[in-house]
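Recall from the previous lesson that a structure prediction takes nothing but the amino acid sequence as input. Here we apply that procedure to BON domain-containing protein from Amycolatopsis thermoflava. The sequence below is the only information supplied.
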Amino acid sequence: MTEPVSQQRLRLRDEFLDRAAEELFKYDERLRGLDLEVRFDRGVAHLTGEVGERAHLDTARELIGRLDGVFGVWDRVRVGGQDPLILDLGCGGQKQYPSNLGVDLMTTGEVDVVADLSGPLPFADSCADRVFLVHILEHLIDFLPLVDEVHRVLRPDGIAYVLSPWWRYVNAVADPTHVRMLDVQTIKGICRRPGSSRTWFPLHAGCDGASIFAELRPVKDASAEAPGAAHLARFFD
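The prediction returns the following tokens.
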């Protein structure tokens, strides 16, 4: 059984990752000169700044995600002078980034759009750059309709960020409002669901012994290349 990473180890790992990322930006010619900053919090990379092209951001995300000990790469980066549109679903009283668009059924100071996440999202097709699903899926009896809605509202190069308790960690069952349990293999099932045309390309997926992390890009083009076995082997059994 995977044990949760201790607070001390998380802190030391963040310090290591800070140094590793600093060297990456200093010595890797693909990243040198980019106006980006990365900060690590409990193994999650928070990437901010501005780039001229989407490809630069994708490269930075990929290289940072390869560092040993990174559980996720969350970004809020301007591309070509444009701010990203980021939906924070089920944000409650705390958004992941202050400028995110908070969406929740309950009204708080952080909620910008009141909506029931068990129904259609009040957003146009392919309008969002990023969607946060932080501690949401485990509260829904059937979360697949919401996953499909996120697929619909994301742009083709958008990303969904998923964070949920791991099914074998005590906090997953200690909260009586949790009605679904998740594993990394659940993410694999979401990516290629039998009978569904809404498929996902996994950019990152993992578990720290307490939580499940995943970053998923919607596959909008039926002719798009599916992830190969070597790519999937990074994340799934």
